[in-house]
């Protein structure tokens, strides 16, 4: 009976047929959402809006008397509740210390309160980890040659390497960043600096070609691995042409360069938690990047891709 009560509290249903049983369903409800809905009942600002619903058509009550602003849940004026929500949106493994702009655009899709943008900016500005690890990203000086806009997703890609990372227990010490130039979606591939060109080509086939097919064009820097006869021969066999960045002007390949900056910020932000096992969490860093708002496409890369 005690087990049954525990299952009921977890909202798990157990069906038994004869001598055999199986799990029927398991639903997980975020505790923070429930706290917000409960806190609405005692918030004076929320009740002020409720009393004037006829004058504020953008707000409405659902069947459970929960207040929404369009499709966004109204967050009451509770400092601890908003602090918990901002912390979850900023420093959880699924967000990994995003900047204020990305964080605000992600939050405002699901939540609303009157001074959200200001609160987000102040929260990020006060984050000690961000102050320690984030570098100042400045616009490159001079005129840059803009590459043509691709016409299909994952038809043209850009790529580069993140090196100088601490070696993990599995001996990974670098990340191969591959970015779709159209949707801005990216893959972060775990590698070692001593991998041969043939090993890199094998990883490329397994992780990129398997999911997206063979690209028609690749933009990269003048790394020896991409300039080698083997790599050029492999691309020629695939029918892919290479585009190299202008020497000493990596801004030409700005797509992957900017992604590398974001990834390095993520890695440094979580260095204390990840230590020598950052390769265990690189999948979450990839998810966080692809699931966060991107300024150039005005949406998240996942939405653009799928």
UniProtKB/TrEMBL annotation:
GO terms for biological process: DNA integration. One of its GO terms (molecular function) is nucleic acid binding. InterPro entries: Integrase_cat-core, Integrase_H2C2, Retrovirus_Pol_polyprotein, RNaseH-like_sf, RNaseH_sf. It holds the Pfam family Integrase_H2C2. Residues 146-306 form the Integrase catalytic domain. PROSITE patterns: INTEGRASE. This is Retrotransposon protein, Ty3-gypsy subclass, putative. The lineage of its organism: Eukaryota, Viridiplantae, Streptophyta, Embryophyta, Tracheophyta.
């Amino acid at each position: 009976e005690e087990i049954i009560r525990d299952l009921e509290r977890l909202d798990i249903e157990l069906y038994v047929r004869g001598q055999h049983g199986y799990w029927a369903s398991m639903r997980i409800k975020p505790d923070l959402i429930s706290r917000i809905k409960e806190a609405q009942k005692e918030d004076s600002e929320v009740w002020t809006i409720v009393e004037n619903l006829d004058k504020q058509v953008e707000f409405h009550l659902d069947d459970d008397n929960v207040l929404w602003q369009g499709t966004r849940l109204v967050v009451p004026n509770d400092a601890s509740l908003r602090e918990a929500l901002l912390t979850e949106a900023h420093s959880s493994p699924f967000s990994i210390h995003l900047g204020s702009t990305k964080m605000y655009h992600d939050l405002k899709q699901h939540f609303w309160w009157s001074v959200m943008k200001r609160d987000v900016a102040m929260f990020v500005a006060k984050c000690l980890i961000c102050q320690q690890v984030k570098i100042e990203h400045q616009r490159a000086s001079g005129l840059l040659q803009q590459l043509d806009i691709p016409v299909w997703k994952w038809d043209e890609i850009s790529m580069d390497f993140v090196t100088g990372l601490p070696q993990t227990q599995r001996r990974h010490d670098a990340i191969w960043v591959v970015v779709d130039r159209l949707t801005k979606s990216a893959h972060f591939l775990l590698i070692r600096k001593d991998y041969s060109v043939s090993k890199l080509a094998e990883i490329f086939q397994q992780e990129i070609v398997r999911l997206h097919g063979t690209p028609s064009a690749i933009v990269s820097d003048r790394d020896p691995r991409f300039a080698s006869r083997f790599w050029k021969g492999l691309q020629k066999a695939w029918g892919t042409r290479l585009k190299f960045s202008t020497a000493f002007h990596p801004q030409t390949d700005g797509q992957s360069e900017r992604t590398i900056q974001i990834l390095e910020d993520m890695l440094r932000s979580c260095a204390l938690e990840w230590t020598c096992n950052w390769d265990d969490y690189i999948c979450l860093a990839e998810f966080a990047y692809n699931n966060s708002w991107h300024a150039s496409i005005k949406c998240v890369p996942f939405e653009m891709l799928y």
